[in-house]
Structure to design on (284 residues):
């Protein structure tokens, strides 16, 4: 009992140092603006499970914001030929993607019958309209000008999306890094319309093959290639889990935003990122 008393006294002593007056100081909640975040879940129905639906998507958007933050910095680092700092950022992107993939498993606890109880309350809103997910696709090289039409009603956002469409992707930056190291790259892969989806180029594949065949000489480029492959792989897994979760909940119904739903999501799986980093594996 004496030992317990001494421990309690020690804990009590430590607790005296805990800050309790935040009249003039910033608290945890103040720093994170929890008053705004935790009051942003507005259900359109009285159904219990709509809260799950809202929070899953809101949390996903926060993770996407961090992905864009990291991808932007990593791309700039690669442009400046500072490859090593980009590796940490790209590894973080991959870990975030794993969080997003896992979120579909949580959403899959929503049964079809439960979702149908509030689906009509969503109106025409759809995950298809997620501009951050579209910006991630653009940043990875999957450009499509036709996807911008759903943002025309938001002038500032529409301008931001158009600008992103015109900017080189992280893969374009990586290809320039190959050329900067003296590897021959076709000018068609360097000077092209950035608003178009990247198309495979034989010279880019040959450059990556050179890197992968001489890892010791091109270790940093090899590491960059593998980081990109990991991100491309995780993005495909996210797409696949998205598709199967939607199929599990609504089958082949049309999406709330007017898309073909599962059929559209299945087509997206055919759009690969960083094609030469995948095709070279057959030729190694």
């Amino acid at each position: 009992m004496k030992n317990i008393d001494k421990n309690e006294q020690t804990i009590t002593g430590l607790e005296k140092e805990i800050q309790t007056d935040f009249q003039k100081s910033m608290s945890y909640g103040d720093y994170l603006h929890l008053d705004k975040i935790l009051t942003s879940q507005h259900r359109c129905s009285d159904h219990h499970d709509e809260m799950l639906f809202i929070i899953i998507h809101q949390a996903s958007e926060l993770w996407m914001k961090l992905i864009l933050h990291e991808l932007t910095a990593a791309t700039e680092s690669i442009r400046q030929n500072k490859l090593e700092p980009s590796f940490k950022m790209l590894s973080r992107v991959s870990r975030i993607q794993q969080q997003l993939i896992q979120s579909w498993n949580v959403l899959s606890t929503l049964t079809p019958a439960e979702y149908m109880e509030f689906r009509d309350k969503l109106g025409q809103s759809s995950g298809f309209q997620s501009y951050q997910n579209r910006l991630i696709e653009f940043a990875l090289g999957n450009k499509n000008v036709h996807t911008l039409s759903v943002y025309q009603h938001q002038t500032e956002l529409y301008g931001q999306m158009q600008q992103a469409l015109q900017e080189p992707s992280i893969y374009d930056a990586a290809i320039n890094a190959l050329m900067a190291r003296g590897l021959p790259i076709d000018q068609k892969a360097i000077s092209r319309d950035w608003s178009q989806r990247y198309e495979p180029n034989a010279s880019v594949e040959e450059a990556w093959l050179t890197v992968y065949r001489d890892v010791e000489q091109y270790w940093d480029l090899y590491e960059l290639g593998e980081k990109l492959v990991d991100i491309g792989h995780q993005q495909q897994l996210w797409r696949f889990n998205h598709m199967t979760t939607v199929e599990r909940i609504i089958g082949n119904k049309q999406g709330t935003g007017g898309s073909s739903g599962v059929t559209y999501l299945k087509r997206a799986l055919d759009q690969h990122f960083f094609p030469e980093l995948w095709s070279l594996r057959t030729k190694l």
